[in-house]
Amino acid sequence: MSNFDKYLDDEENFFKKTKEIKHTKKLLQKNDRSKFKKTDLDKKKTKILKNNLEKAKIFSIFGENILVKSNNIKFEALLRGNLKKDISKNSNILAVGDNVLISIENNKASIEEVLPRKSILSREDTKTKKQKIIAANIDQVLIIGSLYNPQFKPHLIDRYIIAAIKGNMDAIIIINKIDLLEKDLKEKEKYLDFLNIYTDLGYKIIPVSSKRKNNLSKIIEVMQNKVSVFSGQSGTGKSSILNKLFNLKLKTGKTSKLMKGTHVTTRSTLIELNENSYCIDTPGIKSFSIFDLTINDIKEYFFDIELYAKKCKFFNCNHIDEPECNVKKAVKNNKISCIRYESYINLVNEIKEKNE
Ligand SMILES: Nc1nc2c(ncn2[C@@H]2O[C@H](COP(=O)(O)OP(=O)(O)OP(=O)(O)O)[C@@H](O)[C@H]2O)c(=O)[nH]1
Ligand SMILES: [Mg+2]
Ligand SMILES: [Zn+2]
Q1: Which of the 8 DSSP states describes residue 209?
Q2: 166 and 105 in one domain?
Q3: Rounded to the nearest whole angstrom, what is the distance from the C-alpha of residue 265 to the centroid of ligand 2?
Q4: Which atom of ligand 1 is nearest to the CA of 284?
Q5: How far is 252 from 50, CA to CA, in rounded Å?
Q6: Where a domain ends, among 251, 281, 311?
Q7: Domains in the chain: how many in total?
Q8: What separation in Å is there between the alpha carbon of 310 and the centre of ligand 3?
């Protein structure tokens, strides 16, 4: 059994155990709620412990079950009540990858403080419209797209690149399932166009097949001494790639007939590869809304499109339905790629709808 298998095993037991503890706690609370009220002595104890805090890292979060690692030991941890009252612009207080300060009592950790983050991968929470933090303190986002099943979606890749830029991270594009390249000629054409355009724009693209183990070593190369997060649509093969790379046993799924992926991974997990390299497997999503995105942000990102905007009739032209738009003319004359323009339109229309 590898160390990581052991960790997964431990983790499964840990979550089972916490469930049991929670159930017993509930029963006890029902019988005598006063037992769980904080006495002055308890409050004093907390104060004393505050002077004795340890640094820890969040490895996984599943509802209220939090797993942290401090000085090489894993603890189940609870979030302090005062942290729960946080009413910031974020919909979650903690994320995998967060560095925190904990106090330890009877082998249980209490999270006392979340330390400042150097980077954040986030999206807009569809319900609350607040910022949902997917992972924190990451160096680079590995954006996993796939060919044919699910279909290759450049506009989704653009969204992840923008999220990476906004969150202070590098973006690397990985296109998986190249073994399916010949399945659909239109898809192949789109993919080859994408390779040309995005390489010219300066992005690093690694085409791979996790099934046939093609090019996987290139991914390992870029992961050295970095914290990487694997993100992308559901079903593109994030967990499959990690399994092949590091001999793990993360759950992987079957893509449905609708070719949309089936949300196999349900929570983000931090995986320690060596002392300096970590990666985070995240649940795939179908649509990805960037938090706090403005039309100006979009224009800045699509600088190749904006090059043509100077000759548009209106200085604030959005290049959608305005007359005498030089950008639309450039698209017609194949000076701007359709992939980029469609992606741009897709984002701008979303913002316009939101503002209506
Ligand atoms: N043909 C082909 N299929 C692959 C490849 N890599 C993964 N798959 C298949 O794609 C499906 C989805 O893989 P997962 O690894 O679960 O995808 P995921 O991105 O982790 O999905 P979520 O956890 O839902 O976000 C599985 O049926 C894999 O066997 C590949 O290189 N080629
Ligand atoms: Mg997965
Ligand atoms: Zn225009």
Answers
A1: B
A2: no
A3: 4
A4: 25
A5: 41
A6: 281
A7: 3
A8: 8
Coil, strand or helix at 139: coil
pLDDT tops 80 at residue 9: no
Specify whether 98 is located in the same domain as 220. Answer: no
Boundary (domain end) residue, out of 114, 149, 179:
114
Q: What is the mean pLDDT of residues 318-346?
A: 96
273 and 300 fall within a common domain: no
- Please check whether residue 288 lies inside any domain of the structure: no
Tokens of 40: 């002055």
* Residues β-bridged to residue 162: none
* Residues 232, 325 within the same domain: no
For residue 243, which ligand has an atom nearest its CA? 1
Give the count of beta carbons closer than 10 Å to the beta carbon of residue 93: 16
* Ligand 1 near 239 CB (within 6 A): yes
Vertex 224: Cα angle to 219 and 226 (nearest 5)? 105
Q: What angle do CA 9, 285, 69 make, to 5 degrees?
A: 35
The dihedral over CA atoms of 333, 337, 339, 340, expressed in degrees to the nearest 10, equals -110
Write the residue with the smallest CA distance to atom 32 of ligand 1. Answer: 177
Question: pTM of the prediction?
Answer: 0.84
Residues 49 and 177 in one domain: no
Say if 287 falls within a structural domain: no
Q: Which domain holds residue 67?
A: 3-114
The enclosing domain of 220 has a CATH number of: 3.40.50.300
**How far, in Å, from the CA of 237 to the mean position of ligand 2?**
7
Counting from 1 in the atom list of ligand 1, the atom nearest the Cα of 208 is 31
Residues 181 and 276 in one domain: yes
Residue 274 has pLDDT above 50, yes or no: yes
Read off the tokens for 339: 């992939």
Residue 147, pLDDT > 80, answer yes
274 and 157 assigned to the same domain = yes
With CA atoms as reference, report the closest residue to 232 among 119, 133, 142. Answer: 142
Instruction: Supply φ then ψ for residue 134, to 5 degrees.
Output: -85, -45
Q: In this structure, what are the phi and psi dihedrals at residue 228, rounded to the nearest 5 degrees?
A: -115, 145
For ligand 1, whether the C-beta of 150 sits within 6 Å is no
